[in-house]
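Reviewers asked in the last cycle whether our approach scales beyond single polypeptides. To address this, we selected a multi-component target totalling 316 residues and predicted its structure end to end. The input consisted of the following lines:
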Amino acid sequence: MGCLDTETLHAESWKRLMVVELLKGRDTATRLRALLQDPRSHQDPVSAEQLAVEIFRSFSESLSVLSSRVDVVGSAQIPAVDSGGSSSCSGESKKKPGVKDRRGCYKRRRTSDSRVTVSSTMEDGCAWRKYGQKVILNSEYPRCYYRCTHKYEGCKATKQVQRIKEDPVMYQTTYFSNHTCKETPRAPHLIIDSDPVEPNLISFQAPKAQDHTPTNLVKQELYKEDNLSEDQDQDQDLSDDQAKSSLLQDPWQEFMGLESSGYKPVWTTMITSSSYQEEVASAGFHHSSDDQTAGLYGLDLEVDQLGDIDNIFPLF
DNA sequence: GGAATTTGACCCTA
DNA sequence: TAGGGTCAAATTCC
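The resulting structure, written as C-alpha cells, was:
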C-alpha cells in the first residue's frame, strides 16, 4: 500500500480511488462469502485467508485515501465548535493561602500528537492512573484523564477516555505520548500491530513484545448478535471465555469462525492525525449479515451508494 | 498505611 | 474569556 501524496491527490481522483478500492473490497468479500458458505464446491483458487487479507487491504487503502484527503482540506473547512454556552467554572480565581503558584507549570499539549481509538472497553492492557475528570461542554459524559502509573519514572504517556454520545457503550480513547517505561500489559489483549511504515495497513503479525505503545494498533472488539436464541445465549455465555482465549491464540482462525459462534468482528483502526480526521476516518469493518455494508464509524454506507459519494461526503 | 480515585481550584490556549 | 487540561488535597479502597 502506498502512501498517497496529498498534494497530488486531486479532488476527483481521490473519490475514484476510494470507490475502486471499496468495490474491490466488496467483490472480494462476495467471493469470501461464497467460499465460506460452501467450501467444497468453490471454484476460487485463492484461499479464504488471501481473500480476507485482500479485503482488509482494500479497506486500508480506502482509509489511506480518505485520510490523505482530510489532510488536504483539513481544518480550513471544519466548522468551528460552537463556543456558545455558559461557563461551567464560574467565579474569579480565589487563590488559597499556601497553595503553590502553578503558573507555567504545564503546557497544553498539541492534539496533532494524539492517536484515537474507539472501543467497547477502556482496557488496553497498560497500567493507568486516573488524575482527573471533567465535564465537557455539549457532551453528556465526562472526560476522564489518565496518566501512566510510571509517570514518576519518567513515562509521559497519558490518555483521555470519553464515552461516545451517540453510542454510550463505546469509549473514545485519545492517547498522548508514547510509553517510555518498560511496562508489560496487565492482561492479554488482542492487539495487532499494523505495519509501522504504513499506519493504515492491517497485518496479522503478533504484537511486538518490546513496544506497547498504542500507536497504530488495531483492536478486535466483540459483540453478540442480538438475535441469538436463549439456548444459544446460554451456550454463548459459557463459551465467552473460550472464544476470547482462542481469539488471543489465533485471531485469524477466530475471525473466520466468528459468524457461526455468534460473534461479529469489528475492526477499529487508529489514525494518527488531526482531531477531525480521527472522527471521520476511524473505521470499523462489520462482518454483518447484510454483508455488503461497509461500516464506517459514524455512518454506515452501502457500497452501492458510493457512486453518489458527493452526497455522502459533501464536506469535500 | 500505601495506592488509587475524586474533586475543586488553578492556569493555559484558542 | 470560555473551555479544557492538570494539580494536589481530601477521600476511599485494599
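Residues 1-9, 70-98, 184-316 of chain A have pLDDT under 50 and may be disordered. We regard this as preliminary and will revisit it once experimental data from Aim 1 are available.
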